[in-house]
Design a protein that fits this description.
single chain, 200 residues, mainly beta, globular
């Protein structure tokens, strides 16, 4: 017990989780998830699916959610660095439409828990990033929704990102400060802004 530090974020339902890392000359060991520690911290979610992705520098994935089967997600990075973001889409929330972001890296070993009812996405800041996450519900094809990653009404400050808002989620013209072009899927360049997006 007591192997994690849980910090509540300014938006209710978001938590930064830091594991205890035991290191010596050989390397390190840490518990990446312990249900007893989570329950003790007031987090009693049950995970049913683990996912992992690999992305190159400049890739932005998001902002995604499931409509009928919303997922809580516990996310972390095992290689590289990403800026991870959650946007509150809960219609009865006093922080509806607000965002919170945290840098997750293989060095800081932080994890980010995002409760159901948020849109989620991340921007890769390193040459390559391997991203792992646990979900509280299964992926349901056809249930996915999305939110424009650059909606000025939300105003996410993506680190190192340079570009002018073109009036849509189109990524053309955006790049990182070192010149790396922003890399978005076709789908993620077509999501609408907050005022036209699904609410929980």
């Amino acid at each position: 017990m007591g192997q994690i530090k849980v910090t509540k974020c300014p938006i209710e339902g978001l938590y930064v989780i830091e594991p205890t890392v035991h290191g010596d000359a050989r390397g390190y060991f840490m518990e990446t998830y312990n249900q007893n520690d989570m329950t003790e911290a007031g987090l009693d979610m049950v995970f049913v699916q683990d996912n992992q992705s690999c992305s190159t520098k400049g890739v932005l994935r998001g902002l995604h959610f499931q409509k009928e089967y919303p997922q809580g997600k516990l996310v972390r990075v095992i290689k590289g660095s990403v800026f991870d973001v959650a946007v509150d889409l809960r219609s009865d929330s006093k922080t509806y439409g607000q965002w919170f972001g945290v840098e997750l890296t293989e060095e800081n070993k932080k994890q980010f828990y995002i409760s159901p009812g948020f849109a989620h996405g991340f921007l890769v800041l390193s040459e390559v990033a391997e991203f792992c996450y646990k979900c509280t519900d299964f992926y349901h094809p056809g249930d996915e929704g999305g939110l424009a990653w650059n909606d000025p009404e939300i105003g996410i400050t993506w680190p190192q990102l340079v570009g002018e808002y073109p009036g849509s989620a189109d990524g053309a013209g955006y790049h990182l400060s070192d010149g790396t072009p922003l890399n978005l899927s076709d789908k993620d360049q077509k999501w609408a802004g907050l005022k036209d997006t699904f609410k929980f």
